[in-house]
Amino acid sequence: MYYNVIESPICSILLAGDEEGLKHVIFLKDKIKTEIPDDWVENKEFFREAARQLEAYFSGKLKSFDLKLAPEGMEFQKSVWKALCEIPCGETRTYKDIAISIGKPKAYRAVGLANNRNPIAIIVPCHRVIGSNGKLTGYASGLDVKEFLLKLEGSC
């Protein structure tokens, strides 16, 4: 597995993946302790395009990512993550909306758990999912990050 750490307006971000595609985009905030496994190899060139697209996103010039993704998870989780990728930039959906979109209308709690386990932050936009009351709800990297991303996209 290859990795690279890039800087963002929020914090440092760890990118990791292999020939199958991008597997992880992780915010390296103070409260999150991420140890890079010994068998991962730093490779800035491998992530050049991902870094370029993230930089364009943070500068407000990119609304949609075009990267090869290879998240690891159970089939249900992957169906949720795929549905998240269909939420347009600048829009939000509720957990129930996502549950309905994947054909499991009563699975909104399971959607929330899958959302929380999303390994590819920003690019698989779990930050675009809000509570049914329209309020921001949990975000693994903190509500401050979720709010920042939604404001960047014009959703807040």
Break the fold down into its secondary structure elements and pairings.
Layout: E1 2-7, E2 12-18, E3 21-28, E4 41-42, H1 48-58, H2 75-84, E5 93-94, H3 95-101, H4 108-116, E6 129-130, H5 143-153
Parallel strand pairs: 1-4, 5-6
Antiparallel strand pairs: 1-2, 2-3
Q: What is the averaged pLDDT score?
A: 93
Report the CATH C-level class of the largest domain.
Answer: Mainly Alpha
Distance between the termini: 36 Å
Helix content: 25-40%
Let me know the CATH homologous superfamily of the largest domain. Answer: Winged helix-like DNA-binding domain superfamily/Winged helix DNA-binding domain
Q: If strands are numbered along the chain, what order do they take across the biggest sheet?
A: 3-2-1-4
Q: Sheet bearing the most strands, described?
A: 4 strands, mixed
Beta-strand proportion:
15-25%
Q: What is the CATH third-level topology name of the largest domain?
A: Arc Repressor Mutant, subunit A
Counting DSSP E segments of at least 2 residues, the number of strands comes to 6
Output the structural class: alpha/beta
Which value, in Å, is the CA radius of gyration?
Answer: 15 Å
In total, the number of domains comes to 2
List the secondary-structure elements in sequence, H or E: EEEEHHEHHEH
Write the CATH architecture name of the largest domain: Orthogonal Bundle
Low-confidence stretches: none
